[in-house]
Specification:
Chain lengths: 259, 290
Amino acid sequence: MNDTVISAKNLSLTFQTNDGPVHALKDVDLEINKGDFVSFIGPSGCGKTTFLRCMADLEQPTAGDITVNGVSPKAAREARAYGYVFQHAGLYPWRTIDGNIRLPLEIMGVDKAEQDAAVQEVLELVHLEGFEKKYPWQLSGGMQQRASIARALAFHADILLMDEPFGALDEIVRDHLNEQLLDLWARTNKTIGFVTHSIPEAVYLSTKIVVMSPRPGRITDVIESTLPKERPLDIRDSPEFIEIAHRVRDGLRAGHGDD
Amino acid sequence: MRNLFPILTVVAAIFALWYAGSVVLNAPWAYDKAERAGVELTTKELIADTMSQKKPKLPPPHQVGAEIWKTTGAMVAKGRAFSKRSLIYHSWITLSATLLGFALGTGFGIILSVGIVYNRSMDMSVMPWVIASQTIPILAIAPMIIVVLNAVGISGLLPKAVISMYLSFFPVVVGMVKGLRSPDHMQVDQMKTWNASRAQEFWKLRLPSSMPFLFPSLKVAMAASLVGAIVGELPTGAVAGLGARLLGGSYYGQTIQIWSALITAAVLAAALVGIIGMIQKVVLKRMGMA
């Protein structure tokens, strides 16, 4: 049941800068299992984005091991094992929503009929049916980000890596998208890695919350959520939710103890 | 209509200055003639003379206008639009070299910029040469190009186009290097997550992203091409083209002919740049980048 999808052992990444080495990650250990929804939370500079980028082969660790689907991140990337959602939707203004979602499929050489089917399928997943002929500027920020998630889902990768995807959106839109994301996760059974600044967002979404702290970037706590898989928005008022949020806050504070 | 008023004001000011300049600059010759003829000039006679000299220092607008009409519209009316005395004929000669040079320059500029963006050693080495090429006065190098190409049996249109190209590739290189590098880190990373090849990254991301940078470069390149073609006509012995009209005019002190060629060149440049501007508007609007 619990097959490991992503495994990091003693992972370290040091950037050499003019002010000396910066330890973005130091001796990080973590296992992510199939179907997990893992949030990475921590202050700026704690290495949460760097960690996610290591999984995606966008950064190269300087020490330690990391595997994705049992192989190196590079091999996993070349096998198109994951979809990556950035903070900004990054849709191409010269392509329609349909054209944007089709883009990775074109790059991967998927044939036309399969592209059509995939576009329809993911548009439905993110509730953007009927918007395929629109251009990005005709959509709201929240809708653009949903289109960008659809694009990351289009090629049926089992892993979805999301780097503060809702960070630039307002609270109300964010709540709505969080709900939709949970629904999407339940329907597709993807493994999701999710970077966030927001404690409620992390607690609401995750099965596992990874609390990180800076200088050097490291994991200070890993919290297995006891919340049920079915999560209406008002679960955030339940004592259980508040308790988990409290533990996350404590973890964040402990990491800041030396400041 | 609200835009028309300031434009007309500026045009009126230019004409007023131009007429005033004509009177002042042409007056000495008018006085000279009057003195030799032993007559006194009234102010009215003086101004009338400065407006109608055969070889004025600064021909007034109406003389230039009349000359342009005589060598364009009037020739068309007589069915001799492409006679050797027609400015239409000379404009066409220059325009053909301009357009060929512009096409060559744009192509060469884009190829160079792709090389600079994708090849590290070209990135390090080519740009200084590109800049150095533009510091050499074109008047110095144009005769060399003509002589060298003539020596290998190439004459006529191509040498002029090569000079146009020499001037016009530069803005295209500068603009396209910037344009091809305009996608941000995130967009390039995104391409990487899809395991896109460099060719795919170029065609699907970098080239479309560069369009807002390409068009302003093309406008500058087009104007430079026209200058190049005119300069290219000067050392060829002034046979045909707007450059030939300029040179011929200066040999014989035909200032009216020089000014009419100059004005024609300016109108031609404005029209060419305007066409690019229109294409820019349509393309960028369709690409959602305007």
